[in-house]
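Async update (no meeting this week)

Hi team, since we skipped the sync, here's where things stand on the single-chain job. The sequence we agreed to prioritize is pasted below, unchanged from the tracker. I ran it this morning and attached the output directly underneath so nobody has to dig for it. Comments welcome in thread, and please keep replies under the output.
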Amino acid sequence: MGGVARRPVAAVAAVVLMAEALGIALLNWILGLMVDRQKMSMGGMDPDAMSTGTWVMGGLFGLYLLFCGVALLRTALRDRGPGRLARIALISCAVVHGVLGALTVGLVGWTAFAYLMVVLGLIVLTLLAYDERREPGTAAQDVPAPPGDPGPEPV
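Output:
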């Protein structure tokens, strides 16, 4: 992928992840309110503990997605690959979207699956476009052969 297309892909992925962070946090806040107001309980667990757990989980997952979105936005603005911590977070975010996509297909439907796979694709495409091992604009054939390698045989 050339340097021209990778910045917009990273920027779109950042916006999508930030919107998803907001959506996840809002959804968990609403679910926590429902559990709290209806005094729901599972297995005898305290309803207050369940609603608090829902709010905390939604907040943490929202912050995680927001961090990944900010890392992608920073990558797009600087046009340099993410650092080690950001790369690890983005890889784990891609894995989470893959697993959630596999679970979502049966529970929610194909539309949610398609959304999660698009987000997964944007994250992976950004990670591959900003590969640490090569500089922008260099192709694999431009990399010199290792010492002791005679190179390709003449035809």
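Quick observations from my side:
The chain has a mean pLDDT of 87.
Residues 3-38 form the longest helix (36 residues).
Reply here if anything looks off.
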